[in-house]
Amino acid sequence: MTGLVFKAQEAVYAALAGDAGVQASLGSPPRLYDHVPEDASFPYIAFGVAHIAPDDSKMGSAFEHTLTLDIFSRYRGAKEAKEILQAVYAALHRAGLVAVGASFPLCVFHSAEIAPLDDGLTTHIAARFTVLEESA
Predict the structure, then answer these.
(1) Whole-prediction pTM value?
(2) Are strands 95-99 and 61-73 parallel, antiparallel or unpaired?
């Protein structure tokens, strides 16, 4: 199994935290959480479900990390959440990513689901990105 499971999340975090568009939407430093504090201000992004699968179609070993970024907004309607999704897409889609001791040659947008939550106040977007890890 890959030793870089958490490194993919660190690389995504670093790319988002350093992006001006994400900072414009989520503050500086941006509200990006692995564990959301109880008093978190909206809007924010939380790392959600992760899926890791081998990709043995290439020489050597490779893994695909599909990470879900959960975007939460309390703006009336979905406009703010969709603008955050656009900023995240611009920062990550087709990007090469790095973390200390690791590099990931490609990150691509996979899909997004946009829905209001049952509280009637919050819009949630589950945005999925696939990060390719390669090792010799």
Answers:
(1) 0.92
(2) unpaired
